[in-house]
Every structure is written in C-alpha cells, then in structure tokens.
Amino acid sequence: MIRLPCEEEVLERIKPLKEEYDHIRGVADALIATVNDSGIARGMVVGSVARDTWVRGDRDLDIFMLFPPSLPRVELERQGLGLARDIGTQYGAEMREKYAEHPYINMRINGLDVDLVPCYAVERATGIQSAVDRTPFHTRYVRERIGSFIDDVLLLKQFSKAGGVYGSDQMTEGFAGYLCELLVLYYRGFSGVIRAAAEWRPTTTIDIEDHATKVFHDPLVVIDPVDPARNVAASLSLSRMFEFVELARGYSAAPGAVYFSPPAPVILDRNAFAARLEERGTRLYAITLETPHTIPDIVVPQLRKSTAAIADMLTRYGFVMNRSACEMQDEHCMLLFELLVDSLPPVKRHMGPPVWNRFNAEKFLAIYPENTYSGPYIDDGRYFVEILRKHTHVRELLGSESPLKVALGKHVKQSMSTSRTLEEGPECWSEEFAPFLTFFLTRESPLVRIRRTDAIRK
Fold first, then answer.
1. pLDDT of amino acid 458
2. Is the separation of the CB atoms in 95 and 83 below 8 Å?
C-alpha cells in the first residue's frame, strides 16, 4: 500500500514499540489466566489491544469476564465484581467501582489502566442481555478482518485524536475506536476514509454486511456488522462529524504531519481570561454545582438539557444570548452563559389577545385595570400593556428560584437545589474549569486551529 511520506513518518512515531507490546500482552495473558482459573468465568481481552489497533502510549486494557447466560443479572454483578476485586487484591491494585450499563472494576496494574468487566457469554450478538455482551463479537469481527489495515486504523485514530474528534463519551460525541476500524474496513484504508469523508452529508449510511433491520436518522449511520439493529455512530454529533469532514478536506488539499500532532494547549490564566472578556465586551455568567453521583452517560445529557432550558428562559425574559455551554468534571459541573445584553429597563411590553376574541379580551382588561406604565391599548387589533419587568438583570434572574422551575435534568436539578453558586465576568474563572473556559472564549474549528498552529511553527 502506497503511503505519503508524512504518513510513514507518523506511523514510525505512533506504532507500539515491541517492549510496550510485550508488556501489555504479558499483563493481559496473566489476567486472562487468573480469570480462567477462577472456574466461574472465562477471560477475554477486548478492545484495541485485542485487535492490535492501539496507538503507542495508550495504557488501557479491557478484560471481559464471560459468565453463563443462565446466571441471574444480580448474580452476574455480585460474582463479577467479587472476582474482579479478588484479582485486584492479588495484584495489590487500587480499585474503583465504575458504571456502564452495570458496574465493573477499574484498577492500575503494572502501569496499565485495567477494566475488569463482567458480561454474558451469549451465542449471538442479537441475543445480548446487556450492552457490553456485544463487545466480544466486535472484537472477533474486527480481528478476523483487520490484518492488512492495522496501520490505517492507527493513522485514522491519531488523525481523529489530533483533530479533537476522537472519543465516543457523551462530552466528546466523537469517533469511537470501533467506528474508526469499521470505516477503515469499509473504505479499504486511511486514504479511502479521507477521500470519502470529504464528501459526507448528513445521514450518510454505511452497511458493511448489507443487513440493516432498522432505519436511523443520525448524522452518520454505520450499521453494526454484528447487530443489524444498531448504529455504531449513534453517539457522533453533527458538529463532530463535520469537524472531521473539514479536517479530511484540509488534509486532502495539503497533507502534512501537523494533522497528526495535537497542538499544545494554551490555557488562559485568570488575568488573560479577564482581558479576553474585556475585549469581547460581553457578559459571562457561570452556574457551578456539585457533579451528581451517577454515571457520566446520564449526567452529560442532563447538563446539556439544563443549559438549553436556562438559555431559553433568559431569552424569554428578554435578555440577548450569544452562546452557552456546559462541562462536567469529577467534582463540579459548570453551566456557562454569554450574553450580549444582561440588563434591561424596568418597562416590559406584554402582548394580550386580539380584541375580536371577546372572552379573552375582557379577561385581559379585568387583569390589567391599573399598575401599568401604559395601557391596555390596542395595536393592530390586539391588546398590549407595558408593565413592570420582574427581573431587570440576569444576575437577579439566575440567582432566583426561576432556573429551578425550567425543564432541568432530574439529577442536575437535585444538585442545583443544594449546591448552586453563581459567578459573573472574570469571577467565572477557576483552575478546575480553565481549559473549558479557554476553549469557550477562543473557540475555532479543528482545521482553523491546525492551520494557525502550523503557521506559528513555521
């Protein structure tokens, strides 16, 4: 396969070294043997390590513990977590219980970040009892086909990482490793993915096995080869998809190693943040709350829903929004609102019913006989009054109980009810959220960022 010189250069840099490969395989083999020796489950390496599609420096190892499908769900969790903790104890590892569809154990062993995940050893992916049961089928499918395309997967993963579009978690909404592998298989290599992606449109559909049993309307649709009713790209947002499209077009026009090198982040300190806000002349408000104690896949959608609901509330009250965003950290979450107008006069024009709607018109006149600046009066056949505005400043509105009355996510509302703080302007800055705040104020597309970084380097 013919590659560009910059791609060969990148592969030399990102392909795992032999000692790195031997180390991770040695730990994996030992853990598999320990799971098998338990007599209650069978061990299996899954993910990029099992498929040899991991990039140098990745220290993640996923070990699945396959239990009989007849085992009740509560027993799967009890026995699976018990076995994982026993293994962690044998290695003297620090352990954390984490959650996907059901709990699993995360630990550090010999410098590797290891997940020990219980699942069912089902015969077919269509017969899964939990979402993780599908993963072993993904591993087998890719491992049987990826042989000559491993380097292409490494290039695509590194390209996506450098562009900031890699990762299928709720906060990133980008490209999963399995999705990258399937794209390489379908388009027959990295260059094929780049050429095709430059022409992608919303709802582009890929069905490698031509077996879809369901219609999807997601930005990108990649039918799972082992499950015809699942879209592998379901977590990919429209924004991340077209950031990738932009990157593909940029690389096609002027290929270079810069597309595979994440730019060093420049994080604004408190003074630089304040200066940037002063330049913009906008008004920034941050609601900070304690991170709800549930899995990120639940918290992040609720944060987005809550941010949108509060932004809509601000607009309904007459304040002029520019942008809003949210971020989740381990300890706290932040809902951020940038306004073009955050202060309004006391008077508010309030629209009433058409005069020809006699019942509602008379009702309106009964409600507003006095305490108005003007009116009721008739304008284009409809009643209006000019009344006292409830909140004349965003600070008053966000500090009131009103944000708790909009359509917040359940867990976000619970946390906001007990732990909400409100900051304004430069006081929004904190060490915990400095990268998020920097990205918000200096936002640019991945291609623009890469070109700017490349120009600086030259």
1. 62
2. no
Q: What pTM value is reported for the model? A: 0.90
Q: Which fold has domain 347-388?
A: Alpha-Beta Plaits (3.30.70)
Residue 115: pLDDT band by 50, 70, 90 thresholds?
A: very high
Which residues have C-beta within 8 Å of that of residue 324, sequence separation ≥ 6? 307, 308, 310, 311, 335, 336, 337, 338
Does domain 15-142 match CATH 3.90.930.12? no
Q: What is the pLDDT of residues 231-241, one digit of tens each?
A: 999 999 999 99
The dihedral built from the CA positions of residue 4, 9, 12 and 15, taken in this order, carries a sign that is negative
Taking the domain 147-260, which CATH number applies?
1.10.1410.30
- The CATH fold assigned to 270-344+392-441 is Alpha-Beta Plaits (3.30.70)
Q: Are 208 and 225 in contact (CB under 8 A)?
A: yes
Residues 125, 126, 132: CA angle, nearest 5 degrees: 50
State the span(s) of the chain assigned CATH 3.30.460.10: 15-142
Cα separation of 282 and 69, whole Å?
Answer: 58
Instruction: Return the structure tokens found at 259.
Output: 């597309």
> Can you state the angle between helices 150-162 and 238-253, rounded to 10 degrees?
110
State the average pLDDT over residues 431-451. Answer: 94
In the numeric block, the tokens 């399937």 are attached to 182
CATH 3.30.70.1550 domain range(s) in the chain: 347-388
Provide mean pLDDT across the span 39-43.
Answer: 95
If 0-12 CB within 10 Å is exposed, 13-18 middle and 19+ buried, where does residue 345 land?
exposed
Mean model confidence pLDDT for the chain: 94
Q: Are 177 and 52 in contact (CB under 8 A)?
A: no
**67-89 pLDDT, tens per residue?**
999 999 999 999 999 999 999 99
Three-class SS state of 122: coil
Q: Which residue in 143, 60, 98 sits closest to 330, CA to CA?
A: 98
Task: Specify the domain boundaries for CATH 1.10.1410.30 within the chain.
Answer: 147-260
Q: What does the pLDDT look like over 289-348, one tens digit per residue?
A: 999 988 888 899 999 999 999 999 999 999 999 999 999 999 999 999 999 999 999 999
